[in-house]
Fold each of these.
Amino acid sequence: MTARGRGQIALTASLASFRGLPGAASYCGSKAALRVYGEALRLDLAPQGVGVTVICPGFVVSRITAKNRFPMPFLMQAAPAARLIRQRLTRNPARIAFPLPTYGVSWLLGVLPPGLLDRVLMRAPRKG
């Protein structure tokens, strides 16, 4: 792509990348690493004409979400989620995060002081 001077890389992280959640340390940590890697890679490759977009979906119907035993707000079917991603990728955004209400909550959890949230999140339903 850099040799051609054009291209688009899409990396799939998760809204879980904004804050560590109980029972999901490995999942949240790996998605956070991928999100930050993609953000840095975008800056490195932009001058060479290659776009990088980090995709941060909320809950999408899949084999992973089928195992969850807790409420999943704004759970999306896979086909509409894929259409949304494909449509937005054409504009080379830095991030595609959806659905908006879950993104807002995830972002807020990521910027609030951990000491403020820890007691509340320790009582949250655990993944897996």
Note: Residues 42 and 83 are 23 Å apart (CA to CA).
Amino acid sequence: MREDKLYHYAVIRLVPKVEREEFFNVGLILFSKEEKYIRLKYHLCTQKFDLMCGDLEYEEVISSLETFKHIAEGNINYKPISLMDIPERFRWLTAVRSTIIQTSPTHAGKTDDLDKTFDRLFEEVVV
């Protein structure tokens, strides 16, 4: 018998000019409390970046996205936040902020395969 697992996810956005509120999707974070699962992946398209982000440094944005990824993965070098439990890290990563890296509101769903669902959502909203 298949058992669906509850998950929550948010889309990671790059907001080149915060005051204009324009953005494009660059990543996804998904977590399931009951499965102790968290996964974050990003893809920063260089062509979109060049078109929309003339004032930003590509490597600095990548560095910020890598920090998000390390925190999600619980990398000890990014403590104290990375040492929080998975739901707290997810809440911290998806907290409302007014920086160039932001997340969408969180969404919930159910699935019997978290990785497959993550991959499908990533393809739909990021790539």
Note: The radius of gyration is 15 Å.
Amino acid sequence: MRFRSITAADLATCDAVIVSVAAGGSVPAVLPRALRSRAERLVKAAGIGRLYSVDTDFGAKPERLVVVGVGASAAVTSERVRRAAATGIRSLLRAKVRRVALVLDPAVESRLGAASVVAASVSGALQAVYRRESHRSKPDAAPAPRTVGLLGSAVSGAALRRGAAWGEAAVFTRRLANEPGNLMTPERVAEEARALAKETGLAIEVLEAASCRKLGMHSFLSVAQGSHTPPKLIVLRHRGRTGTGVDLALVGKGITFDTGGISIKPADGMHHMKADMTGAAAVIGAIGAVARLKVKANVIAVAPCTENMPGSAATKPGDVFTSMSGKTVEVINTDAEGRLVLIDALTYAQREGARRIVDIATLTGAIQVALGDHFSGLFGRPDAFVAHVRELAESVGDRLWPMPLTDEFRDEVRGEVADLRNQAGRPGGASKAAAFLDAVVDQKAEWAHLDIASQDWLASDKPWSSGGPQAPGVHTLIALAEEAAPSIAG
């Protein structure tokens, strides 16, 4: 799918036109009179106010007109813009259109900024054509448009490239997370990372178990020891500026399949545990976008990847291990394994010199109990950095909600026979998991933890997305890297 800037005159050459309209707003005046009149009738009949589309076949170019609501203009967000574009594209997939025009609402551009609207729209269009039925013997063919032209007040090439990088990173993440555990092994994740590094110019290092052992990463390796599949610690580096130092570290949980280990999970829904490596896929996809955009910052991505299996050598409840940080860990529940792999990855990132660190993980079911399906949990310190991450996330279409991380939770994860214990009861489970990670993060570091287990999986198709993996947080990771560049120059 290719994206370009178009003018009103180009609409007559398109097979379909998608028009986004805010509730209470008007159809963009840039549309030709006949097309605008048709759109206005659709808006009036439908009472556009929420995300959905109305499709009309006129029998002449443009043959189809799709009107998509983005909600109240005062409350419109980048997320709604992205979903509106995706809704419009998805409504056309079976129409076999090749040339599509996406007409942006001037009022929305004015509120959010033209560049942000363009980038969100392009990302939405790319994600709209992602399909999760990759292993069907006869895939359900629904060809994507070949070209999407954007008509707005200021559609720049830079905004188009940014949106394409965002969308490609999200699709990469969703594709990897959708693969079954017998195929998306730690080695396969490493292969995907190598291919991405070769394509984008990233430096890559894949540490085997022996190397991790020499570094003292026994917490990470404790999760891997029940599986016959070797673990991999994947490290990708983007050098966007001269000089030493790491401006941002991205750390992602990579459990390629999670049975729960000896503390085995219930059978219902366990097949979704193939997506427990979404965090790893997210940081790999995000740093790929950073490289494509040639961000002038030094960024690393660390992805500790392993299976969590109940083999004969598997970790037992009550076992004690020493993490890379030197802190000892008592394993109370082997199904609380994500935090075990993350603490060693966080320590590795800090040893590389990172003082601004963001980790992302499908870490706890407790976060879904707390927030439902519409927000991911946000933890970290200092408070100013956490507030900044939330604000930045909203500007790029991710929904994060700040959660408490206080000394009470830190006290509860102190171990009885070791420094830390990896589970301390169900109440406040997401905050306790964050407190466990907090124990290895330097007090002077800026750190944010994104618990995306509430948003990573969509149970069924929606107008704006196919079901399955959803890649929450990827845009935020890229935006954090982008903003590191100006701060360096200053």
Note: Residues 157-178 form the longest helix (22 residues).
